[in-house]
Amino acid sequence: MDCQITRLLPLPAKSSFFLFGPRQVGKSTLIKALFPKTKALYFNLLDRELITSLRRSLKNFREAIIARDKDQVTHVIVDEIQKLPELLDEVHFIMEEMNRPPFFILSGSSARKLKQSGVNMLGGRALSLRLGALSHKEIEAMEEFKDDNFPLVKILKYGTLPDIFTEFDQDLVKLKLKSYYDTYIKEEIRIEALVRNLDAFSIFLEMAAEDNGNLINYSNLAQDTGVSHVTIKEYYQILIDTLMGFYLRPYTKSKRKRLVKSPKFYFFDTGVVRTIQGSLSLDLDYGTDEFGRCFEHFLIREIILLSSYANKDYSFYFYRTEAGAEVDLIVEKPNEEILAIEIKSNSNPKLKNLRGLKSFQSINPQAKLYCVSLAKHRREESGILILPWREIFAELDL
Prior knowledge:
The chain is α/β, with parallel strands linked by helices. 38% of the residues lie in helices and 17% in strands.
């Protein structure tokens, strides 16, 4: 199905920038739409012939840029910059030494090699932006999903990678997601030699998917995987660096209650994590625990992603005491305003199931308390605002 998608992330026209994001979230599509080839010099480092030529002599890159028509070609686009990090030295040189240098757009699906010591990140001369899979606001703006036709179950089940989301043949969706997973293991992990023991990492990846959104137990993972807990931490760092997910760390500012210290890890997309879990063929029904977990995952990812797009300096945590009181998401604003958000995947959340919010309020009396749910109308009970899930974004100025 040919769906027109307008992305929310603004790309600057007159500034150099890095654009990071997982594979297939639409980085190249967005760049090409906003910076057509008539105005840009394009280097795709997935092209083996090109990257071989550049590795043989980086001056080929500089010479191609020098030879450009400065009045016509205003931007230089380098796709998959992590494939050749040393090219950044050339970019830096051109920025410093060339009269009327172009703007550089440097995209990548991994920050692993770029974080290595000695890699030139251009000393603040380029902005750093992140693109994620489709957000619910981008989907709502599509003609196919207007008029309250929002495909929540499809999103929770298969995720929102653009090529996946716009495919309506379910068998093909599953094949594409499995191919995505296989490509990640093959190209990001094996070819880039990010781990020595690929079998152990593959086992870890499946276990990390099973534990998606739960407290990380490094010792248990190490025991089940057959590697050290230090290696498990390194494996999680690989997932972070290859943009496959993010940590949610515990809220620890209270000194009056003992809080858990382990972080949670969430994959960047519900469809990708269900693929790794091997659960794509299973139904995802309202009222089930699995539906609830996917709904929580979806909303936490949405809030963090849209906050990034809006350039909000929010900090995100979860809250949990050793006694078991828990809140799914704590949002701390720069003005020290705090929002505590509990996520429930039913249409009529009960006050007795929201005790974690009251526990959090006991240590932060000024915190605003929310329950985000599938309710059709907002209501307030005992100081807790129970909202239809879409309405939380207005509360967060998103």
